[in-house]
Amino acid sequence: MKIIASNFKTNHTRASTKDFVAQVKQFVVQKDIQTPIYIFPPATALDSFELPKNVTLGVQNAYPTKNGSFTGEIGTEQLDEFGIKTVLIGHSERRHVLGESQKISIEKFNFYKELGYNIIYCIGEKLEVKEQGVDKTLEYCFGQLDGIDISYENLIIAYEPVWAIGTGVVATTEDISTIHNALKQKIDSPILYGGSVKPSNLAEILKIESVDGSLIGTSSWEIESFQQMIEITSKA
Ligand code: PGA
Q: Any idea which residues carry the catalytic annotation?
């Protein structure tokens, strides 16, 4: 079964998230969809939603701590309040916009692994790396897995080329299958593709055998579009 994940980034409010989640729930129940669905709202919209067992609410980022003095961050004390056990780590915007290092990604990974969280760990190259060819791209992506226990049972990898995120430039199916096939040689965990995925290209991307699902930003924020992509995923 292929997986679908929606990363809200800095979009949606507490009220609109509630509405979105309710509509996902209704759609999934009505269509009897078993596809694993992950939703990552902003931290202010986390809540204890009653969800079908295939729908999981996660957090886009969390600090490796229970609590303490880490201004602007949240830890497990805040996540536990809502029973959140799923975290995104190493998203390219954390790495490249917010300057998060591989070291902190590793610290977060180890901390949340120890607690048994579901971890969606993101990797992906910038355009200047892609332009140096497939070998360099793979070297870069494997570098982002340095220090990460890829045999962790609750791990999902998301391959998201930075140049394809939020740009409308989707990688070609050839680009995607080359990288996914190479990653699959070393990684047993499911590997999602992310970067300008939308209803019109999702089916084609999911046809690639080494793609286990997708992590979607922009085109997942509208409920109708996300529902359409849930349905496409359920049929893939
Ligand atoms: P996008 O973002 O779908 O807007 O390209 C994907 C992601 O960053 O997860």
A: 91, 160
pTM above 0.90, yes or no: yes
For residue 69, report the distance from its CA to the centre of ligand 1, in Å. 31
| Whether 45 contacts 13, CB under 8 Å | yes
Q: Which CATH class, in words, describes the domain spanning 3-234?
A: alpha beta
Q: Does the pLDDT value for residue 169 go beyond 90?
A: no
The residues near 49 (Cβ < 8 Å, ≥ 6 apart) are: 18, 21, 25, 57
Q: For the chain, how far is it from start to end, CA to CA, in angstroms?
A: 8
Contacts of 220 (CB under 8 A, 6+ apart): 6, 7, 8, 226, 229
Check pocket membership of 214 for ligand 1, CB cut-off 6 A. no
Q: What is the pLDDT of residues 24-42, one digit of tens each?
A: 999 999 999 999 999 999 9
